[in-house]
Design brief:
Elements lengths: L1 H58 L6 H15 L4 H22 L3 H5 L1 H36 L3 H7 L13 H4 L8
Helix pairs in contact: 1-2, 1-5, 2-3
Amino acid sequence: MIIALIVVAVAFVLFIGFIIGIYNALVRLRNQVDNAWSQIDVQLKRRHDLIPNLVETAKGYMKHERETFEAITQARSQAMGAKSVSEASKAEGALGEALSKFMLVVENYPDLKANQNFLALQEELTGTENRIAFARQNYNDQVLSFNNKTQMFPSNIIAGMFGFSKRDFFEVEIAAEREVPKVSFS
């Protein structure tokens, strides 16, 4: 009888330990996802702060490109006001498209392309874009791990009991990114 109680007690302790282990793993993964999102947010803020400086530098040279400036300003405002991952994905996609169009227009202004302030800002923006891409990849990796843990047995049972739910990936929808680049040497 005493041996049976000891066996039951040990099994119960192991079961509770198993549940605690899964719960702690879910919390760790959730926090890693939140941290990865904050890293994206930092880089997006940096991008949002650089854009007005880039636009102001270009305005002196590009007096006839009002629509381009307005599109960038509007896209930046929407991106800064995004509340969720999906809203941020859409808004950042629109901002990326506006910036791509802006950079194409810049090609028509050789004086602007030679301006040191503009070149420095453009280089800073390029570096920021690279950091955003890296942070986005890290965030999506963390979301993948978290979503796998919340959806796979037996951790899905614990996740459901404690309210852990699937997270959204950060996907930017830019038509230009989906197209195959055309290379021409003529």
